[in-house]
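Its record is retained below.
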Amino acid sequence: MASRKGLTILALGAVVALGFVAEVMSQDSRPADEGQARMERFRQQLTDRLKQSLGVANDEEWKALQPRLEKVTALRAQSMGFGGRTRGNRRGGDNNNNARNAEPQNDVAKASADLQKVLQNADAKPQEIKTALDALRAARAKARDDLAKAQKELQEVLTLRQEAQLVSMGMLE
């Protein structure tokens, strides 16, 4: 049997993979290629392990948990400044949506990109930097507020054991 720490890391990976795969699949309507099929198998293995670690009794219970877990995962990534671009785009992937995916996909990523643009300009005025910095802080604060709300919504459908497991994994406070 896997150690508790290993299981926690694996379960957290499953939640992250769920959010990543959902984002990628929603942005690309092409039929699944070999890489997507491998990712789907990987996601399914991680999902099964997460369900096991949470003691999910049946598919109906999972249907109630999954979208809330995915929402918490996505908002958690946003609040930390991640989730702005798809993996394929970061690696220079050749999917047909590169032009669209080159732009940040959430408010935190957009504000972060805007701040980076300002900082790349050696002649940027202090007020420009302050404006971009304030915008990033505001986007992060909103993402944290949205995350807290999503975590509360997730807690509403959890058993006490599931809640404790997700707190130990760092998904809930």
